[in-house]
Amino acid sequence: MSGSRLAYLQAMDIVVWRARPMSALQTPVVIPEQDAPAPVIKPSDDAWHALQSRVRECRACRLHEGRTQTVFGVGDPQAQWMVIGEGPGADEDQQGEPFVGKAGQLLNAMLAAIGLARSAVYIANIVKCRPPNNREPAADEVAACIGYLRAQINLIRPRLILCVGKVAANNLLGNDEAIGRMRGTVHRYQNIPTIVTYHPAYLLRSPLEKRKAWDDLKMARRVAQQGL
After folding, report:
1. Which of 8, 42, 129, 147 could cysteine-pair with 67, CB 3.0–4.6 Å?
2. What's the total number of domains in the chain?
3. What is the rounded end-to-end Cα distance, in angstroms, of the chain?
4. Is 22 inside any structural domain?
5. Are 70 and 128 in contact, with CB atoms under 8 Å apart?
6. What is the pTM of this model?
């Protein structure tokens, strides 16, 4: 295991066990390779840029009144994984990019612990403008904005969606379930496997829950690999 990945696992408070050498009596397990996924036709850059322009100019709800800039999303627009959070905070509002503060650093570590670089996924939020004082977005604000997120999902067509936090999961999946009830289950959004886990900001406040988040990440990786 590389030193960098070990550091990411330690950031997640994950104990790393060293494997013992395989004895002559043990039979190695051979895992067949997955069939190569069918090629996916992606939309033109024009559609993506048009959506970015619409978000940048949006005045559909009151959140635009206090924003420094919109936070469209970041990452690979042809990513197999899409990470969806709640909404921009102060750092994100200033930089125009989601998950750039301490919670973003932990999210990067969470992704790296399962072998994913931040640049290899696409990260977006339920709303594209910062709610005042980092409050949860109101229902009418979500209603005015979530169409942009749905358009992003339709353009990207990821192989898996990872919802981080209750607000993101409730609004994307259309329920009001507690996060504890949503964890451990493969949900579906437009037939895309969707896994729910804790928001990195919550994990910073409640580090003992990192072990559960690690279980969620391993489940998400397994689902993505197996194409469930």
Report:
1. 129
2. 1
3. 28
4. no
5. yes
6. 0.82
